[in-house]
Amino acid sequence: MATEQIKIRVSVAWWLRWYILGVALMCRMTGCAPDMDRASYWIRRSIKMRIE
């Protein structure tokens, strides 16, 4: 019985950490909640998955 292996490489954009930090800082300063639709759009754009 042969086994197959699939490798998935996940990479995150360098700017994601700074984006999340900026959103958290602005939410803390203004007391407002973040727009989760907009934040999740940018988070999805920053994550890349590649099957090797």
Q: Based on DSSP secondary structure assignment, what is the total number of beta strands?
A: 2
Q: Estimate nothing, just give the exact number of structural domains.
A: 1
Strand content: 15-25%
The number of helical segments is 2
Strand order of the largest sheet: 1-2
Helix coverage percent of residues?
40-55%
Task: Write down the overall mean pLDDT.
Answer: 95
List the secondary-structure elements in sequence, H or E: EHHE
Largest sheet properties: 2 strands, antiparallel
- Give me the secondary-structure category: alpha+beta
Low-confidence stretches: none
Question: Could you say which overall geometry the principal axes of the C-alpha atoms support?
Answer: elongated
First and last CA, distance: 22 Å
Quaternary state reads single chain
Radius of gyration: 17 Å
